[in-house]
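Section 3.1 - Work completed
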Amino acid sequence: MHGPTTAPGGLPPACDFTVFGGTGDLALRKLLPALYLRDREGQLPADTRIVGVSRSDHDQAAYREEVRAALLEHVDADRLDDAALDRMLARLHHVTLDVNGSEGWHELHGLLKDRARHEDTVRVFYLAVAPGLFGSICRRLDEIGAADANARVVVEKPVGHDLASAQAVNDAVGEVFEESQIFRIDHYLGKESVQNLLVTRFANTFLEPLWNSHWVDHVQITVAESLGVGDRGGYYDHAGALRDMVQNHLLQLLCLVAMEPPTYVGGETVRDEKLKVLQALKPMTPADVDRDTVRGRYDAGLVGGAAVASYADDLGHDQSDTETFVALKAEVHNWRWAGVPFYLRTGKRLDRRTSEIVVVFKEPPHAMFPHSEGGSTPNRLHIQVQPDEGMRLHLTAKEPGPGGIRLRPVSLDLSYATAFAQASPDAYERLLMDVIKGNPTLFMRRDEVEAAWAWVEPILTRWAASPDRPRRYPAGTTGPIAAATLLERDGRTWQESDS
């Protein structure tokens, strides 16, 4: 099989965008609203069809009505207009199909072939279904002749639950599609602030000379959620925070912070540099896991002033050892970062919803103002990924006034919402357009996924062998006390977003 005929980065003349799981939560809440918003801006190929595949016994009219209701619910009212909505709905088709059965595939095949110059149409297959179905769907697509050079397949996380299963999933998809046709999506990489991290690093000359172990004391990456597991309890209890968040989202953010400058941003260059970071992570021994990782589980508490239940109550039983919180210390063993710890943490039912990266620089080597009031604090670059995208550079300044020097921490703030006139697109909006254009930069390559699993797996193995259960923490807090101790023993503290 050959690669796609459309040049990467170019908009094809026609596209059939097929969503397996077309009536599921992800499709209705994220994917279809993202496609509507790009269509509203005139960015979809004019000749685009959107095909929802599900087991629902919908005819075309019923599916369009279900999608209309989802768009009205999940798209901001000021971005809804009748002309764009009607154009989007006219693109929709539905095929009733059980991916494990034989019925319906002929109908999908006929629909995809039923267009002028179908051989020049880019076909995107988005697998918004359980990973166990990826292989069988791909084989069926191959059997009906839909997995040709113009096809692209998008797979959601999790790609496996350990290294062996990830390799099995990759093998199954790779039997049908070339690596260049496989787009493993991590929506965090589509966020404006994450991409702006690359621009901040590589388009500003004053930062790059400081971006190394000579000047950086440590790096903190936090992805905190105020919600509990909700209706994902069945899935989450078999995954846990390490698999669900650290193995993909947090390690991808670490890669973007730590990677070497690529030759240019595009194609395979960024993914090559991210892989080098994952390969440079210090392997975790059992002693390292015991010392440098903390796992926790939320108890009942208060979030936003409202009482919330414990994980056991949300799950319906107290027999689980699954973690809802992880904090850990990682090290990148290369020339640039030797000796610089990277502290990662993520959890559910914490005191706020936030995702942030904090680069803490070293303190000045000499106290120049010994008789001043106040004190200097380490400079910090604080990158806010969500909810309020932007960045702050924390400095020490002299407070105005006579009678001596009073030192005061101040910050230079950049809020994307106020600095730029246009609203930032949702991560899925950008990533789906990249799939249509064939641009792989913001997607995970097979070797990246498997390198991340190879690093995480010793932690999972050690935790499974340990008699210790996850440490409890009240909902509405910043996590277990041991997470603070993880930094305090190194003489450091977590940098909270309002500190």
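Second construct:
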Amino acid sequence: MAKRMALVLLLMVLTVSAVSADEEAFIGVNIGTELSDMPHPTQVVALLKAQQLRNVRLYDADRGMLLALANTGIRVAITVPNEQLLGIGQSNSTAANWVAQNVVAHYPATNITTICVGSEVLTAMPNVAPVLINALKYIQSALVASNLARQIKVSTPLSSSMILDSFPPSKAFFNQTWNPVLVPMLKFLQSTGSYFMLNVYPYFDYIQSNGVIPLDYALFKPLPANKEAVDSNTLLRYTNVFDAMVDAAYFAMADLNVTNVPVLVTESGWPSKGDSNEPDANAENANTYNSNLIRHVLKKTGTPKHPSIAVSTYIYELYNEDMKEGPLSEKNWGLFDSDGKPIYILRLTDSGSVLTNDTTNQTYCSAKPGVDSKMLQAALDWACGPGKVDCAPLLQGQACYEPDNVAAHATYAFDTYYHQMGRAPGSCDFNGVATITTTNPSHGSCIFPGSDRNGSLLNGTIPVMDTKSASSPAMFEYMNAFSIANALIGALWIAVVS
């Protein structure tokens, strides 16, 4: 009997700590779509591959994105949009149809691992709160019926504003108004082995504290021991707001007698630009926060309360969303602009592989997708002529001939010129048809300038256009007024610098 009891206790311990044993801590990224020039799904996936981002969260279940993500191995969290929750929470069959169309139709080619049922529902759409539990259960039932319940977790992201008295963390508790929803929700998460999803924004905690929270404490910067925050009840020491907020969630769950549901941070980040009344929304602070956050998560040290439990986190967000409503800061949480150009170069030395091509400042010059093919051809002609780029590798039978289209050939020529000019400002423009990117365009035996020639190339894609480049090896036959003007400007420039 004693041995059997010991075995039961061991199994309980293993269940509680399953997240630390079965899953590695990961950094993912949220992909918002409120951009005036939203990249095509294939471009989004190319950027994810180049940055070695293996975990993404979508705010919907967009079919184009799910198809583009197929056969990539990227782990995908999809979302039931808030506006669909009432229907799903009131009808089991509606939930089953949603899962059939958005999950079963794509899995396993698309590696869907998580379904977020809504986003910050209790604070954003409190009128939907009464059906939230049913929505969770109906989605879960549909997964069970499809034999996918073991592969896909179901939960709902909540705002950290749900947690009251968050410091010291040991005193934290949930807004009791929502206990009728939170208690059954936590029981659901327990019974299904899912996560407590939490959006954590130290930026907002910092600006709302009126100077009580030091900026360095919000940014994960090293603090002297006498500046660390100490929980007087547990004597746990906190060196950053992020850990304190995650532990506040653990203590708030414990206040409702739930101690074995791990926290997954579904959003966290820092804006790179703000209005005049938000001076700390700037690129330096955004870089510092996100670089430190990534290192902190990937060290797998957990939090002071649970040092052995990973706190995987999705960064908010991949792209700046220029169509977002609200202050300027709302539009500037992205790591990249719509062309895939980094807003800032993350400082991630020795942090693993994710986003690490930014750490060496490897940038390339690529043809912009969707630009006029004649403009692109003219710019290609100039690069291979007055621009003095050796375009021999683009000839038929040579390493960079395939794919044989003007966009691919222009990208090679643009990038070569860009590196010949030492990546100087303005050397990747070509009258607006080129853009800087961190996606390495090398492919097969076609190695672009600036690439790692030792075989550790990042995955990249070449922009493809239907318009074919001239089949003749003489690539300088087509010179319109645009390229002639550029040739004259280039010749003058070369004469000056020579």
